[in-house]
Amino acid sequence: MESVGSIIIYLIIALSIIVFSVLTVTTRKILRAATYLLFTLFATAALYFKLDYEFLGSVQIAVYAGGIVVLFVFSILLTTKPGDNSEKLASRSRALGLVGAVAMAGVAAWALCSRCADLFTALPSMQNPTMHQIGTAMLGTGYGQYLLPFEAISVLLLACIIGGIVVARKR
Amino acid sequence: MEFTPVYYLIPSLVMFCCGVYGFLTRRNMIAMLISIELMLNAVDINFVVFNRYLFPGSMEGMMFTLFAIGIAAAETALAIAIIINLYRVAKNIDVHDITQMKF
Predict the structure, then answer these.
(1) Which of A1, A51, B19, B77 yields a CA-CA distance of 20 to 30 A from A123?
(2) Which residues of A52-71 are buried (b: 16+ CB within 10 A; e: fewer)?
(3) Is residue B99 part of a domain?
């Protein structure tokens, strides 16, 4: 049995995820879309906090809300004139997109509700992963430890920095 | 009432389908990129929820989400570099107007 506060927090998180993600793809001002994306990402971080992953929630806020959205806002300001609205959608492409998205949602929701009976379990208790555990798991080479992906992603980020400079510089 | 995984998977499903809708209908490249971010984020939620409910003792889903966030950041930075370069050449980032790279 969940407490009332927990239910209220869950409702706020779920409603803001749904409402803001719908607004992100339906608003016609691109800068507003980026702002609604920011709210969606904050709601996701709150979801991580609610599921007891504090480190993951902070990473979500720092990298997504702090880094990626700022990149989006900068590039929007660089590539659009202020006061520009995106054109009204042709009804054909909108219908196509709606059919695709709703069909996918229907199939996935049906599969979720009919095939996943063993998923209807209560929240198991868990020790929150401490920073020490996370650091050990990230820099170890044993079972369930992730040194190789860690190094690979550091090389990927270096390549991405160099590639970004090379692609975007003035010739 | 008890929270089962489905309570968390439904908002994530809605978020993913919003991403699909935006990707199919938007014509501005940055708006398409925002839709991709929505889809990636929905998948991250799924990883975390399954980790928390099915394997609460281990951290596999959490680590996957951490690496997915890093890769999403790299992908966004590079895509925005390409878009800015394209804007400099074509003065426009509408996917229907940029036909020089077709075929």
Answers:
(1) B19
(2) bbebbbebbbebbbeebbeb
(3) no
Pinpoint the alpha helices (H) of A27-124: 30-50, 54-59, 69-79, 91-115
Side chain identity, residue A70: V
- Per-residue confidence (pLDDT) for residue B103, from 0 to 100: 59
| Secondary structure element (H or E) that encloses residue B17, with its range | helix B5-25
Which CATH number characterizes residue B20's domain? 1.10.287.3510
* Closest residue to B11, CB basis, from A18, A53, A68: A18
Of A1, A94, A119, the CB nearest to B2: A1
Which of A130, A146, A107, A95 has the alpha carbon at shortest distance from B24?
A95
The residue range of the domain holding B77 is 5-90
Please give the domain boundaries of chain A with CATH numbers for all domains: 1-85 (1.20.120.1200), 129-171 (no CATH)
Rounded to 5°, angle at Cα B18 from B14 and B20: 115
A25 to chain B: closest CA residue: B22
The ipTM assigned to this model is 0.91
Dump the DSSP string for B41-85.
HHHHHHHHHHHHHH-TT--HHHHHHHHHHHHHHHHHHHHHHHHHH
Alpha carbon of B1 to those of A7, A46, B5, B14: distances in Å?
Answer: 9, 20, 13, 22
Alpha carbon distance A111, A117 (integer Å):
10
| pTM for the whole structure | 0.90
State pLDDT tens for residues A32-77.
999 999 999 999 999 999 998 999 999 999 998 888 999 999 999 9
